[in-house]
Write a structure and sequence with these properties.
- Helices cover 68% and strands 3% of the residues.
- By secondary structure, it is mainly alpha-helical.
- 30% of the residues are buried.
Length: 231
């Protein structure tokens, strides 16, 4: 019964995410409708979070700790970035990500959770490691692979950011003081990703979610499409 229910939930979630992003691509393709559809970005982030959350296999204290610390770190480094230029460079947020507190949209912390979680789950699947939930942290075998897993997942994060940055100013997500994302942005993004993926892989929860890979692919194809259409 649980498997059938999860299968139905997966199919519904996948249909909703694909449909929402396809409509988004269409709406963002035209200058007249672009502001409205860019303003729906918070809805997209929340929908994606709910979908992935429903299909996550285990909500234990360790997983909740991961969510809390990832959100806090993600939002914290963005506050630092906007007000001091560290670690990403000088930039400011536009209005498409919704309400801002301290010049930073709180939803940006949710974006960090989504990307760290999805790249982490996909990396775990690539390496085929499934530690039993009774184990404390990583198994000895997984500990040997931890640096490579963290590196792989963090490289994925940088590749995704490379796709987002060219269209971010056009969608009023954020803009850079010199017009383009500096090299330090990608270095900073990589560094923060390493820190958060260390947290992801060391905490003791089941790192499985059948929607993680489709979500990443949808996100990547979404931004590839926008780069082709808008740039």
């Amino acid at each position: 019964m649980i498997d059938i229910r999860q299968s139905v939930q997966y199919q519904i979630a996948l249909f909703v995410l694909i449909s929402f992003h396809l409509v988004g691509i269409a709406g963002l393709s035209f200058e007249l409708t672009r502001p409205f559809f860019a303003g729906l970005t918070p809805v997209s982030l929340i929908l994606s979070s709910v979908a992935l959350g429903i299909l996550h296999r285990e909500w234990n204290k360790q997983f909740m700790l991961f969510l809390f610390l990832t959100y806090l770190t993600g939002y914290g480094v963005e506050l630092s970035g906007v007000h001091t230029g560290f670690p990403f460079g000088e930039y400011e947020y536009g209005d498409s990500l919704g309400l801002k507190i301290g010049a930073v949209p709180p939803l940006i912390g949710l974006n960090w959770i989504l990307l760290i979680y999805a790249t982490g789950v996909v990396t775990e699947k690539i390496f085929g490691n499934k530690p039993h939930p009774s184990h404390s942290g990583e198994t000895p075998k997984n500990n040997k692979r931890l640096p490579l897993k963290v590196l792989t997942a963090s490289v994925m994060m940088v590749l995704i950011d490379l796709l987002i940055e060219p269209v971010a100013p056009l969608l009023d997500f954020w803009s850079w003081s010199n017009g383009n994302a500096p090299a330090e942005n990608f270095i900073g993004w990589f560094g923060v990703s390493i820190l958060l993926h260390l947290l992801f892989f060391k905490l003791n929860f089941i790192r499985e979610n059948k929607l993680a890979l489709p979500y990443l692919l949808i996100t990547i194809l979404f931004f590839i499409s926008l780069n082709i259409i808008l740039i």
